[in-house]
Design goal:
This protein has about 150 residues and is mainly beta. It is built from one helix and eight strands; from the N terminus they run αββββββββ. It has a single domain, classed as Porin, CATH 2.40.160.20. A hairpin with a 2-residue loop joins β3 and β4.
Length: about 150
């Protein structure tokens, strides 16, 4: 049970931040969430290590599914994650998302991990071409949390 508290808290904080930044008028008609693709820089944590990465989202426009990927670099280890997510628009240009995918980690010559992951997060556009995002990815015995900013197109 304790293993679920940190991820649930992190996702709640991310959703709160995305809602605050993404909500403009409480009386407005419901708006579509963020529908753009983006690529950007991210900083994440894997256990006690800080990882820097490149993160991206490929959006299918009006279809509420996306393909996401991140490459992390930390302390001699490279980690790649990829997922397919369901995107739920909660405010104008703001989504929360959840999905499934996989992760692989190498130390340069040997694969040290490969497996299934679950992902949950939030994203919002803070200007016409700038997006902020954050999520947690959870696998067998590990979790990766990241936040970042990207250029949307």
């Amino acid at each position: 049970m304790n293993i679920l508290i940190k991820p649930a808290f992190a996702c709640a904080v991310i959703c709160f931040i995305a809602t605050v930044f993404g909500t403009t008028n409480a009386n407005a008609a419901p708006k579509q969430g963020l529908q753009k693709s983006y690529i950007g820089a991210a900083v994440g944590s894997l256990k006690a290590d800080v990882a820097f990465g490149i993160s991206g989202r490929f959006s299918f426009g009006d279809v509420p599914f996306s393909i996401r990927g991140t490459s992390y670099f930390a302390d001699g280890i490279s980690i790649a994650t990829g997922s397919v997510t369901y995107d739920l628009g909660i405010a104008k240009k703001t989504n929360i998302y959840g999905g499934v995918g996989g992760a692989a980690a190498t130390n340069g010559t040997t694969t040290v991990y490969g497996g299934f992951l679950l992902q949950a997060g939030a994203e919002t556009a803070i200007s016409n071409n700038v997006v902020i995002f954050g999520d947690g990815s959870f696998g067998d015995g590990y979790s990766i949390y990241k936040v970042g900013a990207g250029y949307s197109f």
